[in-house]
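Morning!

This is the sequence you dropped in the shared folder:
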Amino acid sequence: MTVHERDLPRPSKTHAVTVAYAGGEERRGPVTLGQANMIRCMLRDEPEHINIHDVWPVPAGTRTDAVLDALRALVVRHEALRTTFPEGAGAAGGAVPREQVVAAEGEFTVTVLDHEALPPDAGRYADAVARRSRVARFRLDRDFGLRISLVVLDGAPVFVALAASHAVTDVSALGVLEEDWRALLSGPLPPQTAFTPLDLAAEEAAPAGLRRSAASLRYWERIIRTGPQAMFDGPGAEGTEVGTPEVTLRSLRGARALARVAGRTGGLPSTVLLTAWCALVAHRTGQSACVAAVPTSNRFHDRLVRAVNTVSQDALLALDVRVPSFDALLAKAWGAALDAYRHSRFDAVALWEMIDRTTFERGSRFARDVVFNDVSALSGAGGTEPDGPDLELGRGPVQVLPTRLLAFVHETEPLLRIGLWADPALFAPGEAEGFLTGLVRLLEAAAEGDVPLASLTGVTGVRPVERGPDWLRTDGCWVSPPAVADALGDALGGVPVHVAADGAGEGLTAFVASGGAPLTPARAHAALMHVLPGRPGVLAPRRYVIVQDPPEEADRTDAWLRQHILTEGNGRTPAEPT
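The structure's back. Tokens below.
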């Protein structure tokens, strides 16, 4: 159940506490690739969509001054929390700053919300407080990177509820901060050994870092040229920003099954879960590969695991599921995941320039449809709730997301705890819950023995999407030739168009009746690419054949082939006339 603003209890007293800190080192230097990537998103997206939040339960018996002292020590410990970007005010549409500055001293504010009573589900209320703090844009040039509220009951602190600037932290970093803050409540911590943002920026600018970034672009280009342009296609998969309700899973059954699969196969639990997820996503979408962004998994470097920084650059996983069984897929998954992790640090501007060039040449629009975020290693939740439910499904707040299927794995033991956002235009009521239940069923079946992938419908209860007879798989994608013809005809002002698969099944050919108007393959391709966004079932033809008039039997490819050809080409070649 979502907590609405009107339902929030009102604190009996609210006051702000200014916390001063000192003892850090003043530094400055270039921004990291991850910071530049996330700042670009912050300047483009609505703040409530790009800012992040977290809630930290306060251990019982902790005094307010101890909470504040630990927060102060946390800020001194982590340079990211003392960082601003002097060239960037944070206004929408602004330029991405090139430099970051770390302060040696300063101050931040904690808003104390004192209550005489809290609702029964106080944690959900604290989450609503933190979520409310996300709605204002962070000023990059001057704002402290955390907006902190302390939820207090009769003078005793109960929760730290905070929103964070994505320029200085990501979800994994918030997990590290919570762990460090809890430890600081008891005493000092050993010196920090993880990369600071400036350390990481220096490594990225070194020759080895530049080679790694270039290799990442080549890796991404291969997937974008050959993999599915979108995991979801057809009606309902249009548009970009989608309001999506959260579905939550808490399951002892799932955690126990996951551990048994890992024991039976020798696979890491994280890899087993990723394999099961990919198998079920590819099954549901009817794709031959699961292409998914796995953002938190780029912390594979020892000094990045516990780095407080925004390392939020996608690791792009492409796992070919054309194998007979779960165990065979698991054997491939670790290598595919490692390949993705190794190629997850790149210049975001260069990446999108490559994507724009590659998709124009392929005639597609890359869609970041599926996101799998496993933050369980940094959740600090292990060992909690040993008496949790066998399988419990719940509902959380609606979020507007630029993706179709997003999963956050918060915990894998002793509970399997996952938050799922599934586009309601693609998942009918109850289907998102059924998907999570199906994931648990797949793990339970795989715990007993190898599972044929052809049996997933019966094993999981999740049915593949149904496509009509006009759909075909070509060039690694599901495509509707009639939809391509309609899109191309509309883009060219309503001229007759016929689209057919070529003889090898590796691409499409478009026949266009220009009616005598000047038209070239290059103009036809450019017009189609202009209207392609939001049409995931449309892939541009590999060849455009321009004729003057359509044949009488306009639905027959052989009839179009008998027409006099005015010009033909792929539409991508610069030498072709425009």
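Headline: The two ends are 56 Å apart (CA to CA).

More detail when I'm at my desk.
O.
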